Amino acid sequence: MKRLYAHSFNRCGSIYLRYNNYTKGLRMFLNSLDICEETDDQEYTSKIYNNIANVYYLFKDYETSSKFCEKAYELGVKNHDKEMQNIALKNQIGLDCFLGDYEKVQEHLKLFNRLQTNDIYTFHYYQCISNGAINLKQQKFSEALVDFHTSSFYADSCATPKRMKYASLSNLSKTFLYMQRSDSAIYYLKKAEEIASSNDQYLNLLVECYDDFAEIYKNTNNASLYLEYKKRFLNVADSILNMQKFSRIKDMQFFHEMDKVEKRVYYLNEMQSLKDEQIKFQQFVLMTVACAFVIILLLSVILSIQNKKLKKANNELFNRNIEMLKFDDEEKKKRWQACNENEGEEDSPEIIQKVKYQGSVISDEEKRQLQEAIQNVMDNTLEYCSVDFNLDKMASLVNSRTKYVSQVINECYGKNFNIFINEYRIKEACRKLIDVDNYGSYTIAHIAESVGFKSNANFNVTFKKMTGITPSMYQSIAKKRKNQPEA
To answer: In sequence order, what DSSP letters do the residues of 301-340 get, joined into one string?
Structure first.
């Protein structure tokens, strides 16, 4: 809301300036500046500084205007606002010319050129205007005339051609006046007057124009025209430049600056009293930190002991799982040897898988044959590691019905199909995790997918449930033992 207030005051000030009410415009800008300084809105403050600089320029207070232009440019640089830098530098170059500080003119021209705004005509315009002002000061009138004529040419291609054209024509008039060629001075000043009188927004230019006319006719001893233009100058100046009100506004700004100084002094005093409080607080903090350090040290010792216990427990679980895998491999080897011994008999695994079941209930012998067929699939294939492996697939492999397969697994193994398959998958995952040479670079997710798990999260939960430790810990222990084998 405060930013909106600042924006509203600034817009009101711009409107007052548009209708040549400069004192009210300045008051609005100062109100906006107060809010921006309170909220530390630096980006918007640069715009207000530039607007305030314009008001002081209109009242010919070029030094104050220059100070605000510098502030606008500095904030533009700080906020990386190239548009504001561009505007502030153009205004600053003109003010440098009015103040006769031609070293700063060249310095600001270089900064303007570095902006690379592609506004090449404006750059050349200001370059010509500043060079003309320098030549005029050095009484190099011919060179000054060339510079001002050239600037007039560039002004036609600039963003505000009429104002810039007016400046070129006005400078041409002044140059001819210095050369005591009053006819040429009047000629170019009349061209400038045409621009100044073409729009109410150029009343401040018209004031300057009438003042210049009065100066020319004073030098040529033309009393009647001098008085006429002096009268015009005073009438227009009084209508737009209320010097009494302007002085009050400047006083208001002075008190505003003094108020900021008082606030700064109050702030420093408060900071000093806060330092005393901070010293006491820091002593308390040091004691608290010391106590906290002792507590953290004790907790670290306890945590270290717990980690050692956890590490020992994980290693024991790992060893137990290794033993279980060895036992499982030995059992599988025994079943394979038994199968070879029974080769050729009618109840061999190959024959068992061809058994057809006629009734809705299978006999004990059929259950035994079906169990052997299931075990044959689990021992001699890795079909169960397929992601899409299910009860239907198993039934198809053993040439039976799904309900019989489910019944046999439940009765003979004491678990449902999913648990039965997951146990084999987890055992296969354990084998891969232990095989560091071939699978050491694999991620847990990759191994989970390779043994048939669609979800990595489901794999982690199932693995820990069946082994007692997480897959990552299992893999870590396997790698450590590979690199540092136990004695």
So the answer is: HHHHHHHHHHHHHHHHHHHHHHHHHHHHHHHHHHHHHHHH
Distance (Å, whole) CA 197 – CA 205: 8
Q: Between the ranges 15-19, 269-273, 471-475, where is the mean pLDDT highest?
A: 471-475
Between 34 and 406, residue with greater pLDDT: 406
Contacts of 378 (CB under 8 A, 6+ apart): 384, 424
Specify the DSSP class assigned to residue 414: S
The two structure tokens encoding residue 301: 């010792």
Cα angle vertex 133, ends 130, 134, to 5°?
Answer: 90
Q: In angstroms, how far is the first alpha carbon of the chain from the final one? A: 75
Residues 14 and 236 sit within 8 Å (Cβ to Cβ): no
**Side chain identity at residue 355, one-letter code:** V
Contacts of 85 (CB under 8 A, 6+ apart): 73, 76, 77, 111, 115
User: Mind listing the pLDDT tens digit for each residue in 269-323?
Assistant: 777 878 888 888 888 888 989 888 999 999 988 888 888 888 888 888 888 888 8
CA 99 to chain centre: 42
Give the separation between CA 91 and CA 105, rounded to whole angstroms. Answer: 11
Structure tokens at 327: 């036992």
Which of 75, 74, 95, 76 shows the shortest CA–CA distance to 84?
Answer: 76
Pick from 109, 117, 111: nearest CA to 74: 111
Angle 129-134-137 (CA atoms, 0-180°, nearest 5)? 125
* pLDDT for residue 356: 44
Number of other CB atoms surrounding residue 455 within 10 Å? 12
State how far the alpha carbon of 7 is from the alpha carbons of 3, 35, 246, 445, in Å: 6, 10, 22, 56
Give the single-character DSSP code of 202.
G
Rounded distance, CA 451 to CA 445, Å? 10
C-beta of residue 53 within 8 angstroms of C-beta of residue 68: yes
pLDDT tens track for 231-265: 888 887 776 666 666 666 666 666 666 766 666 67
Question: Is this structure's pTM higher than 0.85?
Answer: no
From start to end of 323-467, where are the E strands?
none
Q: How far is CA 464 from CA 306, 424, 460, 482, in A?
A: 19, 14, 6, 22
CB 352 within 8 A of CB 371: no
**Which of 160, 138, 167, 139 lies closest to 150 in space, CA to CA?**
167
For the chain, what is the mean pLDDT? 84
pLDDT at 397 over 90: yes
